Amino acid sequence: MFHRAAAAAYRGIWAAFRRQKTTSAQYVAARHRDNTFEKLMDGYKNLIPVLSVQDMILASPEHSIPLPFLASPEAIRLLRLRRGPAHFLRSFPAVFSLRPHPTTSLPVLVHLTPAASRLAQQISGTAPLAVERITRLLCLSLSRSLALRDLIRVSHELGFPHDFVDSVIARNPTLFSLSSNPNEPNTHLVSLACPAPAVVPAVDSWRLRMLADHADKEPDIHFGFSQIFPPGMRLTKGYRTRLKAWQHLPYPSPYDTPPSAVGRKSALEKRAVAIAHEFLSLTVEKMVEVEKFSHFRKSFCIELNVRDLFLDHPGIFYLSAKGRRHTVFLREAYSRGCLIESNPMYEARMKLLHLVLMRKRGAFADSGQNMPDS
Question: Which residues form the PORR domain (predicted)?
């Protein structure tokens, strides 16, 4: 009887969130814009490729890379460069310096400026933090294992050291195991080498705080999520009613093995929201590219289109399409375009973002280098 009533209620709730447009592109275009996040992404769209090049430089034993390396098709595709690597590097002289190779017959080398190099030491993640976050990600997976390449894709967002495979996974054999992927040749799996620890989702902390101040609203909070809608977004009375009913829908914890009843669309969708919420809570800046998160769909047993999932819940997530990429933010983590609970890595990245936004204005004040013309 309860399941029939819940299913009937959910059919009405899903009508509030279901996709209204015929294509995903139209659905993205029709979303309610939040100018605060859009302005933030204006800077981030340049910071993201800058961090990728920085990681390449730090991974090199000489802390430099040859300029032609960035001209390879793979690098151009990764960095999404429109006008080539040389133009890109010269656009940020406060971050990168180009120096002739000591042997003139070899190509120009790309280095970090002294200012960017100092920040890079602060931006690089720590092993203890990486251990905790990798453990949590593995616990989110039903098989307690993830493809190594997927972890590498999000290493920047999760604040892993650039050498985390050696410094974190290999050095903690009692926690993690690295093995060949039997389903895909030349790929590896990272698995938990110990029983899954008890893990508390980040949303539970919000619920405890809310219950402390609003004990009378326990039914609204027990299975609910923080809802912060974009400025100017009008919510009808019917929408608010359906949203309140959705907040009351039970679902399994993202860290628990879902019961067989999770096949119901209501539980599938709410559990997917919980997993995405938890994943974003683990990131340094509470944001990630939708494409990168999509690589975890199978491991996390998410059977829904994740882009539509983010758009269906504008009070929890915000999706930006700036910089030729779709990026999703966790709304509750931000206030006026800044992270509410700051951390040293985030602060260092904000300082690097300042260097990026400087472009060529006062670029050489702290760099100590002159950039060659060719």
Answer: 32-360
Mean pLDDT, the chain, whole residue set: 85
Q: 194-231 burial by CB neighbour count: b if 16+ within 10 A, else e?
A: eeeeebebbbeebbeebeeeeeeeeeebebbbbbbbbe
Structure tokens at 305: 């289109």
Count how many residues are written for the chain: 374
Q: Residue 335 and residue 136: Cα distance in Å, rounded? A: 26
Residue 373 corresponds to which tokens in the numbers above? 């013309």
> How large a percentage of the chain has pLDDT more than 90?
50
Distant-in-sequence, close-in-space partners of 66: CB < 8 Å, separation ≥ 6: 101, 106, 107, 108, 109, 110
At 274-283, the pLDDT tens digits run 999 999 999 9
Q: Hey, what are 108's tokens?
A: 């120009």
Q: Worst-scoring range by mean pLDDT, 27-36, 170-179, 255-264?
A: 255-264
From 293, 306, 304, 239, select the one nearest 265 (Cα to Cα): 304
Strand 96-99 relative to strand 334-335, pairing: unpaired
Phi and psi for 103 in degrees, rounded to 5?
Answer: -95, 110
